[in-house]
Amino acid sequence: MVPLFYLFALLAVIAALSVVLQRTPVYSALSLIVVLCALAVIYLLLGAEFMAAIQVIVYAGAIMVLFVLVIMLLNAGREKPSERSRLAHWLGVPLVAIFLIEVLAVVWRQFPPGSPSYAAPLDAGPAAIGTLLFRNYVLPFEVTSILILVAVMGAVVLAKKQL
Amino acid sequence: MVPLSHILTLSVILFTLGAAGFVLRRNIITIFMCIELMLNAVNLAFIGFSRHLGNLDGQIFVFFVIVVAASEAAVGLAIIIALYRNRDSLNIDDLDSMKL
Amino acid sequence: MATFSDTTFFLIATVVKVVVVLVVLLTVVAYAVWLERKVVARIQSRWGPYRVGPHGLLQPVADGLKIFLKEDIVPHDVDRFVYWLAPFLAFTLAFFSIAVIPFGESITIGGREIFFQITDLPIGLLFIFAVTSLGVYGIVLAGWASNSKYPLFGGLRSSAQMISYELSLGLGVVGVLMICGTLSLRGIVEAQRGVWNIFLQPVGFLVYFMSAIAETNRLPFDLPEGETELVGGFHTEYSSLKFAMFFMAEYANIVTVSCLATLLFFGGWLGPVFGPPVLRAVLPLFWFALKVLIFLFVYIWIRGTLPRFRYDQLMAFGWKFLLPVALLNILATSFIIAWWSS
């Protein structure tokens, strides 16, 4: 089981690199879908079965479809390299590396790589999540439903040809 | 059992890649996708913690993050469509002034 | 048999199950095409395939051979990677859902019980919805990669239709989930031993069935690939093997949706069972196959009878009629369950 985590972690990182480095937006979108599915498998390995299914159904199956449809609608072609600052161009990658090492240092100070970890198996099935969602978290749940309603109305108005 | 530090390392790597793409790319839709990558890295951290602390609240958080990401994607893409109609370009270098 | 360890036995059983299920599914898909041509022909007062083998029964073999040997025409300006990826994606995703569908009870070989199901996930139904959600990509990517007007329109329309009807598909099933209390497909069938869900959830069934026809892009919802509207829709620029993969994917989706309908609403493999143990193991399979075949026939019957919806009528139907009806069904079901259990 555990080696599968490293396999899908590697897949997720390679696909994430592809998202960031591809020049064509459609290929970036496809790579992002691969990242999402790899993460869904990792959630499954970590025992969050319902979240894995939700990740694929909602994130990879609906949100990314929206992205792909918009990319095709707007006919987004290959990206031209920026003519702006040369300094930023050369400093970009080293700064990213420094940022990465910084954040990793902070995380590793708190959770050293070699430390063992114990945890009892968790029941993360739909029934458990549903109980929690509709008892303790019912207010945020209702608020997000209003949020989605507002988002839908906003999207329809913003994308109309004539108001 | 996967150690928590490994899960967090993966989460940090994905987040950094997302942040790098967000800052370095020019196409506005790709920038938006890097935002989604960052959100997913955070989701992974939440689920890792939920597993290791034996608490289901982390997964409820992920649920709400996914819902908010969905509404954000819908509105953001609608804004991008409206922008494209007015400026006829998806390059953020061309979208740097409020005046048309 | 007792000398095999549990893991070896499990592995061998799983491999055998996967091979058998895939072979059976491919044959059913091939002969579903034959069934469709025959039934539609009879509805239109003509014979259908008649010459190749008795009553045209070898027609699928002839068609398969023809498709393999046909010239593969690839237009010049297509995006090669996505052009190749789209049919492959559609084809593999169409065959994933069969992994969680239970066909019958179980059979005991050598003291160990083998279930007639490749795997029984506790979230089996969500797995099928996840695979259906990903199936949209095959179509939309095919439309885009073809680099041509009609496929692009067909692909965009088809994907918009599929994601709209996914909502009512899922919501139509929620009533069943409330009654059966589990997402595992075997559990849903087991909960129908008393009374089949079709009698408890008739509205849910109608919503599910209509959404399923729209999901699989079949008449009367097949505007995105109607010949008179958009040439071939998203698969216009495909030929030979890749086109065959789209075709097989469509029929595999139809079979999957029919299997789901029998499992969720018509009691799956439940039916009169009698006789010696071998017969007891095989009869549920027979009942399941019979029910799925009846559904396939109803699909083809509808295709041969009804005219096509216009695209705006199609979308209005999904969003303004089916979705509210599904939501009202959930509301009514939850009220009835709450009142009944008090």
Structure notes:
The complex is a heterotrimer of chains A (163), B (100) and C (342). Chain A has 163 residues and is mostly helical. Chain A is built from six helices and no strands. The longest helix of chain A has 26 residues, at 49-74. Chain B has 100 residues and is mostly helical. In chain B, helix 1 packs antiparallel against helix 2 (28-53). Chain B is elongated and about 55 Å long. The termini of chain B are far apart. In chain B, 48% of the residues are buried. In chain C, strand 1 and strand 2 form a beta hairpin. Chain C has helices spanning 6-43, 59-69, 80-94, 124-145, 149-180, 185-190, 197-200, 202-215, 227-230, 240-265, 277-305, 311-340; strands at 106-109, 112-115. Chain C is an all-alpha fold. Chain C has a two-stranded antiparallel sheet with strand order 1-2. The mean pLDDT of chain C is 87. The chains are: A mainly alpha (163), B mainly alpha (100), C mainly alpha (342).
Entry summary:
The complex is a heterotrimer of chains A (163), B (100) and C (342). Chain A contains six helices and no strands.
**First and last CA, distance of chain B:** 56 Å
Mean pLDDT of chain B: 90
CATH class category name of chain B: Mainly Alpha
- Helix percent of chain C reads 55-70%
Largest sheet of chain B: none
- Total of DSSP H or I helical runs spanning 4+ residues of chain B: 3
The residue-averaged pLDDT of chain C reads 87
- From the alpha carbons, calculate the radius of gyration of chain C and give it in angstroms: 21 Å
Defining key terms:
heterotrimer, A: 163 residues, mainly alpha, Four Helix Bundle (Hemerythrin (Met), subunit A), 2 domains, 6 helices, 76% helix, globular, B: 100 residues, Helix Hairpins, 3 helices, 78% helix
Write the layout of secondary structure elements.
The complex is a heterotrimer of chains A (163), B (100) and C (342).
Chain A: H1 2-21, H2 25-45, H3 49-74, H4 86-110, H5 126-135, H6 138-159
Chain B: H1 4-24, H2 28-53, H3 57-87
Helix pairs in contact in B: 1-2, 2-3
Chain C: H1 6-43, H2 59-69, H3 80-94, E1 106-109, E2 112-115, H4 124-145, H5 149-180, H6 185-190, H7 197-200, H8 202-215, H9 227-230, H10 240-265, H11 277-305, H12 311-340
Antiparallel strand pairs in C: 1-2
Helix pairs in contact in C: 1-2, 1-10, 1-11, 3-4, 3-10, 4-5, 5-8, 5-12, 8-10, 8-12, 10-11
